[in-house]
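User: Sequence recovery, please. Input:
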C-alpha cells in the first residue's frame, strides 16, 4: 500500500484538526506572533510533489504551494539533492564581500529567461519584500527622482518601503504610522468590475487617461516620478490579470517620460502562468523585474533584475548579508532546470486543461461570479448574487474551509476570491480532484443561502 505521501490525491485518516495538530495549534497560540493569518488548521509535517502530510498522517492535495512558492512541488528529489550537496560544501559566504561562482551562474541563467534587447544585471535578496525594497532604491538612485506610482489592490510586501506601495487590505498598513512619502495609487484594471463596462481586452483605458490627464497634471509632474510598479497579475489582490494593452501602454508612457517600469513577478513568475514571466504575455520589457517565491522551491531567495543601463549604482550603495546564499542558489539552479525542462510546459498545458473545465462555472454555480488568471494562477471570485456582484467573503471562506476538510488546500485572495496556485507539476488526476472538490463545495455552500 502506498504511504500517504506516495498517493496522488488526498487521504484523510482523522477528523480535522487531528489530536497532534490540536497540540501544535495550542503551542502556537502561546508562543507565536498573533499577526499571522492562518486560514485553516493545517499543521504540516512532510511534503512530496503536490501532496502535504500533516502531523496526524492526513494527506492533502496542495493547490496553494506555500503561497505559490513550491513551484517544483514539495521536496523534489533533484532540489533536495542540490541543497544537500551544496550544504556539505559551503553554506554561507556573503556575496556582498566575497565572490562565489554560483552568483553569476544563477544571474546568467535568470537573465536568459527574460527576453528583450537589453543586457541585464541581478541583485539577490532573501524575500519578495526585499526585492521590492531594492527595486525602489534602485529606481530612486538611477532616476534621481523620488515619486512612485502603484495600484489599488496591489501587494508588494510588508517592510516599510514596500508596504508604502502595498494597497491591498488596510489591516496591513493600519497603526504603522507614516509610510514612505511621494507614493500615489491609481485604480488597477479589473475587468469583472470595470465601472466603464469594458472587457478584459480594453479595461483600463480610463485609468491611463487618469494617469496622464489628472495625476501628471495635478499631482506629480512626470519628470518627478521614479517608477511605476505593477503586478502583471494581481496576486493577493484577487488574481486579477492586467490587460496586455494596459501593460504595453504603461511601458509607452513610462518610456516617454523617463519613468522606470517595475514589474513585480514575485507571485506570478517562474513559469506559473505558462511563460517564464507573466509580463511576457504582453510582450513588454520592463526596466526592473522583482522575483522571489517560486525561484528556489521554498528556499529563501529573491532577486531584482534590471536593465544594465538602470543598474549603475556605485559600490556600497546596496548590499546584503545573506542574499544569494549558496544553498538557496543551488536550489534555484535545480528549480530553474526543472521548470525549463518540463514544468513550464506542464503549467501551460494544465492551465489550459483547468480553464477548459472551469470556464462555465459562472453558468453552473450562482455563487461563482468570475473565473480568471493564466496557467496555474487561477482565481475564482465568489459573489452572493451574480447580477449585483455583491462580494461574498463569508461564502468564499466557507468554500475554502470545506475544501480543506475534503483534503484540498487552497487560499483566499482579495476580498472574495479563491486562489489556486498549485505546484507546476500537477497532473490531470490531481486537477480533476481539485475541480471536483470545489464543485462539491460550491453546491454545499449554495444550499446554505
Ligand atoms: C506580488 C508580491 N510581491 C511581493 C510579495 C512579498 O513577498 P515576501 O512575503 O516574500 O516578502 C508578495 C508576497 O505575497 C507578492 O505576492
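Assistant: Recovered sequence (449 residues):
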Amino acid at each position: 500500500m502506498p504511504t500517504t505521501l506516495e498517493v496522488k490525491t488526498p487521504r484523510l485518516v482523522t477528523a480535522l484538526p487531528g489530536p497532534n495538530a490540536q497540540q501544535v495549534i495550542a503551542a502556537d497560540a502561546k508562543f507565536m506572533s498573533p499577526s499571522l493569518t492562518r486560514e485553516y488548521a493545517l499543521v504540516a509535517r512532510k511534503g512530496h510533489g503536490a501532496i502535504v502530510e500533516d502531523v496526524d498522517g492526513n494527506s492533502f492535495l496542495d493547490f496553494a504551494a506555500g503561497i505559490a512558492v513550491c513551484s517544483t512541488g514539495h521536496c523534489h528529489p533533484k532540489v533536495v539533492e542540490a541543497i544537500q550537496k551544496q550544504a556539505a560544501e559551503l553554506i554561507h559566504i556573503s556575496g556582498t564581500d566575497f565572490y562565489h561562482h554560483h552568483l553569476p551562474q544563477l544571474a546568467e541563467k535568470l537573465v536568459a529567461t527574460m527576453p528583450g534587447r537589453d543586457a541585464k544585471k541581478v541583485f539577490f535578496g532573501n524575500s519578495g519584500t526585499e526585492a521590492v525594497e531594492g527595486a525602489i532604491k534602485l529606481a530612486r538612485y538611477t532616476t534621481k527622482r523620488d515619486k512612485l506610482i502603484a495600484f489599488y489592490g496591489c501587494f508588494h510586501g510588508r517592510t516599510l518601503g514596500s508596504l508604502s506601495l502595498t494597497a491591498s487590505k488596510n489591516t496591513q498598513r493600519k497603526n504603522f504610522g507614516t509610510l514612505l512619502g511621494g507614493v500615489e495609487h491609481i485604480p488597477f484594471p479589473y475587468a469583472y468590475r470595470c465601472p466603464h463596462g469594458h472587457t478584459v481586452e480594453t479595461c483600463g483605458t480610463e485609468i491611463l487617461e487618469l494617469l496622464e490627464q489628472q495625476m501628471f497634471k495635478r499631482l506629480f509632474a512626470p519628470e518627478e516620478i521614479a517608477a511605476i510598479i505593477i503586478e502583471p497579475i494581481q496576486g493577493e489582490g484577487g488574481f486579477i490579470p492586467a490587460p496586455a494593452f494596459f501593460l504595453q501602454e504603461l511601458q509607452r508612457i513610462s518610456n516617454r517620460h523617463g519613468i522606470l517600469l517595475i514589474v513585480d513577478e514575485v507571485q506570478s513568475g517562474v513559469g506559473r502562468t505558462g511563460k517564464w514571466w507573466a509580463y511576457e504575455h504582453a510582450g513588454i520589457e520592463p526596466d526592473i523585474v522583482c522575483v522571489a517565491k517560486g525561484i528556489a522551491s521554498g528556499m529563501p531567495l529573491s532577486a531584482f533584475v534590471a536593465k544594465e543601463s538602470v543598474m549603475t549604482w556605485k559600490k556600497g550603495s546596496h548590499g546584503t548579508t545573506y542574499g544569494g546564499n549558496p544553498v538557496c542558489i543551488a536550489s534555484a539552479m535545480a528549480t530553474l532546470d526543472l521548470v525549463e525542462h518540463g514544468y513550464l510546459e506542464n503549467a501551460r498545458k494544465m492551465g489550459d486543461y483547468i480553464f477548459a473545465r472551469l470556464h462555465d462555472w459562472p453558468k453552473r454555480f450562482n455563487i461563482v461570479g468570475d473565473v480568471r488568471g493564466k496557467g496555474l494562477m487561477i482565481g475564482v471570485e465568489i459573489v452572493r448574487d451574480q447580477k449585483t456582484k455583491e462580494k461574498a467573503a463569508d461564502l468564499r471562506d466557507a468554500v475554502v474551509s470545506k475544501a480543506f476538510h475534503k483534503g484540498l488546500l487552497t487560499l483566499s485572495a482579495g476580498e472574495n476570491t479563491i486562489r489556486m496556485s498549485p505546484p507546476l507539476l500537477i497532473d490531470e488526476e490531481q486537477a480533476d480532484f481539485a475541480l471536483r472538490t470545489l464543485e462539491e463545495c460550491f453546491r454545499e455552500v449554495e444550499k446554505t443561502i
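The longest helix spans residues 326-358.
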